[in-house]
């Protein structure tokens, strides 16, 4: 089945004032749609056409060489953004609880220390890219990727990612990426991240 842009799980203006309605409309309806359209086009007639996006990203080497960059960029963009929309909620913010909170404390020392590293990775990502919380070999790690590269390409399971492409924040924050990264914690859907963590742990056990 061809990729499709999933509907937002909330209204376009639901994350204001932290993310404005115009940014959400452009980001979801235009940018994400473009990744989907280009990924579907690049996958036409290949052995991975119709496969789940996670499977596509994990098996890029099965594609003809002239297709790999387009699929890496655009299927990566589709997967990253699908995870991004679900990672936010108008009822978000606060801190994680339960097993996820314990795992973050164990991996980073504290929730505040994790936030600092996550934000620092986002600030340090030169140009466009993402800052991530991932699970790798049963361990939580903070990492970053350029462009639309997915952590799946490194054998990692992405749990939480923030988009630091300028289109994600520029209308409100202009060139103040650090301000955007700090404000974003107010909309993080920790219940969804905890759900992903539980599933990822099961998959890697």
Radius of gyration: 17 Å
Helix content: 40-55%
Number of strands: 3
Instruction: Give the mean pLDDT.
Output: 97
Which runs of at least 5 residues are low in confidence (pLDDT < 50)? Answer: none
Strand content: 5-15%
Tally the helices: 8
Class derived from helix and strand content: mainly alpha
Through-space gap between termini: 29 Å
Give the H and E element order. Answer: HHHHHEEEHHH
Structural shape = globular
Major sheet: arrangement of strands: 2-1-3
Main beta sheet: strand number and arrangement? Answer: 3 strands, antiparallel
Tell me about this structure.
This protein has 205 residues and is mainly alpha-helical. 50% of the residues lie in helices and 11% in strands. The protein is built from eight helices and three strands, in the order H-H-H-H-H-E-E-E-H-H-H. It has helices at 21-43, 53-58, 65-86, 98-108, 111-124, 170-173, 177-184, 190-204, and strands at 129-136, 139-146, 157-163. It has a three-stranded antiparallel β-sheet with strand order 2-1-3. Strand 1 and strand 2 (139-146) form a beta hairpin. Helix 1 runs antiparallel to helix 3 and helix 5 (111-124) packs antiparallel against helix 7. The longest helix is centred in the first third of the chain and has 23 residues, at 21-43. It is globular and about 45 Å long. The mean pLDDT is 97.
């Amino acid at each position: 089945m061809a990729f499709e842009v999933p509907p937002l799980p909330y209204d376009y203006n639901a994350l204001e004032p932290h993310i404005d309605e115009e940014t959400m409309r452009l980001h979801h309806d235009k940018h994400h749609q473009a990744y989907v359209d280009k990924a579907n086009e690049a996958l036409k007639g290949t052995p991975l056409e119709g496969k789940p996006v996670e499977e596509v990203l994990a098996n890029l080497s099965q594609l003809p060489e002239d297709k790999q960059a387009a699929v890496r960029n655009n299927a990566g963009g589709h997967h990253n953004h699908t995870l991004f929309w679900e990672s936010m909620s108008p009822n978000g913010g606060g801190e994680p609880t339960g097993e996820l909170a314990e795992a973050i404390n164990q991996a980073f020392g504290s929730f505040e220390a994790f936030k600092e590293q996550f934000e620092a990775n986002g600030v340090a990502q030169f140009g466009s890219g993402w800052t991530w919380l991932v699970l790798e070999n049963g361990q939580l790690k903070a990492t970053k990727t350029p462009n639309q590269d997915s952590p799946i390409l490194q054998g990692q399971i992405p749990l939480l990612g923030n988009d630091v492409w300028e289109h994600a924040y520029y209308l409100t924050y202009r060139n103040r990426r650090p301000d955007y990264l700090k404000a974003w914690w107010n909309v993080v859907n920790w219940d969804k991240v905890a759900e992903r963590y539980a599933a990822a742990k099961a998959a890697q056990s």
